Amino acid sequence: MSDAEGDCGTQGLPHPNRREVIAAGISLPVVAGVASGIAQPASTPAPERIPLRVTINDAPYELSLDPRTSALDMLREQLSLTGAKKGCDHGQCGACTIHVDGRRVVSCLTPALQLEGRQVVTIEGLAPSSGELHPMQQAFIDHDGLQCGYCTPGQIMSAVACVREGHAGSADQIREYMSGNLCRCGAYAGIVAAIQQAAPRMGG
Amino acid sequence: MHPFTYTRAATSEQAVRALAAAGPGARLLAGGTTLYDLMKLGVERPSHVIDINAVQELSGFDTSGPRELVFGGLSRMSDVAADRRLVEGYPALSEALWRAASQQLRNMASLGGNLLQRTRCPYFRGGAPFACNKREPGSGCDAIGGIDRGHALLGGSRSCIATYPGDFAVALVAFDGEIDVLGPNGARSLPVEQLHRDPGDTPHVETSLRPDEVITRIRVPATRAGRASTYHKIRDRESYAFALASAAVGLEMDGDVVRQARIALGGVATRPWRAREAEEMLRGRRLTGRAAEEAGRIAMRDAQPGSHNEFRIELARRTVADALTIAAGRA
Known about the structure:
- The complex is a heterodimer of chains A (204) and B (331).
- Chain A has helices at 18-24, 28-35, 71-78, 135-142, 152-165, 171-177, 188-201; strands spanning 50-56, 59-65, 97-100, 103-106, 119-121.
- Chain A is α+β, with helices and mostly antiparallel strands.
- Chain A folds into 2 domains: 18-125, Beta-grasp domain (Ubiquitin-like (UB roll)), CATH 3.10.20.30; 135-201, [2Fe-2S]-binding domain (DNA polymerase, domain 1, Orthogonal Bundle), CATH 1.10.150.120.
- The two termini of chain A are 24 Å apart.
- Chain B is of the alpha+beta class and 331 residues long.
- In chain B, strand 2, helix 2 and strand 3 (48-51) form a beta-alpha-beta unit.
- Chain B has a 5-stranded antiparallel beta sheet.
- In chain B, helix 5 (91-98) runs antiparallel to helix 9 (168-174) and helix 11 (289-299) crosses helix 12 (311-328).
- Chain B has helices at 12-22, 35-40, 77-81, 84-89, 91-98, 103-108, 111-115, 122-126, 168-174, 276-282, 289-299, 311-328, and strands at residues 5-8, 26-29, 48-51, 61-62, 68-72, 178-183, 186-191, 214-221, 229-234, 245-254, 257-266, 273-274.
- Among the domains of chain B are: 5-54, Uridine Diphospho-n-acetylenolpyruvylglucosamine Reductase, domain 2 (2-Layer Sandwich); 225-328, Enolase-like, domain 1.
- The chains are: A alpha+beta (204), B alpha+beta (331).
- Chain A binds chain B through residues 37-38, 40, 44, 47-48, 50, 67-68, 70, 89-91, 94, 97, 103-106, 109-111, 113-114, 116, 158, 161-162, 165, 167, 175-177, 179-181, and chain B through 1, 3-6, 8, 29, 32-33, 36-37, 39-41, 49, 51, 53, 78, 101-105, 107-108, 238-240.
C-alpha cells in the first residue's frame, strides 16, 4: 500500500520525500510550474478547476484539478506516488504505465479527469501486503530484468497486464505485447525471462 | 499547454450539441492518444474539450451479423483486435489494429479517433523554426527538400507531403468500410475512402468531416475476401513503430485464380490509398509470384520520391507482393 494512503487531497504532503527535498533545493516558483505540468505567463488568469473522484490503490481520493493535468502528473506531483515514471511524456516509452479498471494505459496521455469514478492501480499498490512482493516483482529481481531501474515500474505494470490478458504464451508473444515498454539499458532478455517465470505463478 | 474548458457528454446528441454550442476551437476527447499528445506539443490548442468517453451507445461492436460488421466509434482498438470472429474471418482488420501502437495505447485509443489520427511528420509536430502548412496554413513546407525519409510517395502536393500514419483506415478502405456520422442536421454516412482528403493547397483540412460531427459507427460489408486477407506492415523495428510501407489485401479466389482482389497501401501516401489498377490487373489471373510483383509495381507506379525516401518505393512493391502471397495462403 502506498505511503500516500488516505485523503491527502491537493493540500500539503504528509511528510517530505526525496522529490520534495530535491525540489526545494531548486526554487519554489519553478516547482510550482512543474507541479501542474504547465508553464504559463504570470498574467494568465487561474484556470478553472474540476472535481475528480478516483480510487487509487484501494484508497478513495477527492481532488480538484486543472483540466490540463495528466494522470501521471497528478500521481507524481500531487499525490507523491512517484513510482510511475515520466520518460518521454508522449506515450512512446511506457515508463508511466498504470492500470485503470484493470487495463494497462500510459498515464502521461491520460488526462486525469478521465479517471472519474475509476479504479487505478500503480506500482505502489501492486504488492499484496507490505514486505511481500508481487510474483512479477520477484521475477524481475530473480532474472535481472533491469539495470538502472527507471523503466522498471512501467515494465512490471505492463508485464502483469500482459499475463492477465493472456499475451504471455511464448517469448515471441511477450516481446510483441511488451513492445510499448522501452528499456534503454537493454535488459530485454531478463524481462522476457521474468515474465515467463511469473506467468504460471500468477495463475495465468 | 493552452488552457481549455472541459465538459463531459453522456450521449452522442449531447456531444453534437456541445460542439455546436462551443463553436470553432472545440474538440471531442475520446482516447486522447493523439489529441492530448498534440496539445502537449502546442499543435492542437482547443479552447474547449468535450470528453465523450462516457457515451455508452458508441462503445460496443458486433461482428456476428451476416451482412456487415459494426463497430461503435468509441470501441477500443485492443478489444476489437482480439475479437475471435475478426481474427479468424477478417485477419486484415485484426492485424491492422494489433500491429499499431502498443497494447497500452490500444487500450485507450478509440476506433473513431484512430481514423482521425494526425500525421507523425516531425515538421508538423516540432513546429518553429520549421514551416508547416498543416500547422500554420500558408507558412510553407520544410519537409519538401528536407529530411523526408518517412514522407509520402503518393498523393503529395506542393504544399504537403505528410504521410497518413494510421493502419486501420487502410484496411477499412480495402474492404469498402463506411462511417456513420452525427451532426446538428442529423446522421449521414460516407465511405472511409472519402474521409481523408488529398492535401492539395489546403493540407490543414484533413478530412471531409464537418467540425461539429461525431463518428458514431464504422461498418464493413461482410465478404468472403475477409478470410483470405492480411495487413502486412513493414517497420524499422519488428513492433511498435509506424509503417515504412504496409498493404491491406483481401482475396476471393477460384482455386489459384483471382476472382477479386482488394489492395490498399499504408505508410506511403498522404491518405489511405486504394490500388484499383493493381486489383484490376489481377482479376482472372493466376496468382503467381510474378503476378504479385507486377501488382506491386502497378500500385507504386505514380510514386514521387524526395531526397531520402526512394528506397520505400521498392519496399512498398515487395510489401504488396508479399501481402498477396500471405492472403492467398489463407484462401
